[in-house]
Amino acid sequence: MDTALLIWNIVISHTGLFENVISDRDTKFKSALWANLHKLLVTKITFSTAYHSQTDGLSERMIQTLENMIRGFCAYGLELKDSYGFTHYLCKAPAILEKGWNPKLPVDTFKKDLVDNNTTASRSKLFLDKVRHHSNPRITYAFEYTKQKWDKSHKTPELKVGDLILISTLSFSNIKGPKKLKDSFAGPFIIKALHGKNSVQVKLSGELESKPPAFPVSLVKHQTSSDEELFPLRNETLLEVPPLDQSEEKKVLKVFKERKLR
Length: 262
Known about the structure:
Blueprint: H1 2-15, E1 20-23, H2 32-41, E2 44-47, H3 58-73, H4 81-84, H5 94-99, H6 121-153, E3 164-168, E4 185-195, E5 199-202, E6 214-216, E7 220-222
Parallel strand pairs: 1-2
Antiparallel strand pairs: 3-4, 3-7, 4-5, 5-6
Helix pairs in contact: 1-2
């Protein structure tokens, strides 16, 4: 009640009384402050959602219009810098390559180097052809540069059957404990089979037995042995390599049901 009296004496004395308070079902409007304040004001709470046309939507529309005006006049270029700004690889703005011109905002009326939006179709096509001819080698150079940087830092590991590997826990959701404290990699596990160059099959144990045993190569890495001089108390678990069946013939373990053909 004390906070409600402060709002009554300080805030409402400057703003005046309000008849309705439109809420979006927030928990703040269920607190004791608002309950006591409505008793003092003798007002009524009107709940509003975005899916009911009978409620008041003027506040949402006013806020949306205000945000657009602030972006256009006060924060011009902050949120549109990626689309309408100059890039090093293209030597143009991405919006020019896509539309042929940069969108005109109210602040741009003071600039003299704007592109005329009322051009004919032939002039627009000629301009876009020149832009594409100039930007194609830039895009090719950017693609090759990105591919070169990726190939340097991402190398395909050389794996074979029987190696000890660690598996990334990025896609594991059944590991106990808080997610922030879980290890980045789990293991070590033994490779049982290779499915081409992009997938491996391992023998899981513990709480990971319920997951499928096949994983992509991008989620695994080799286990490196620790230095005994730096870490004398670290004990490494020794895993036995399971016997590998070299024969390609499959064996029938159990027949669940028989069916006679007529």
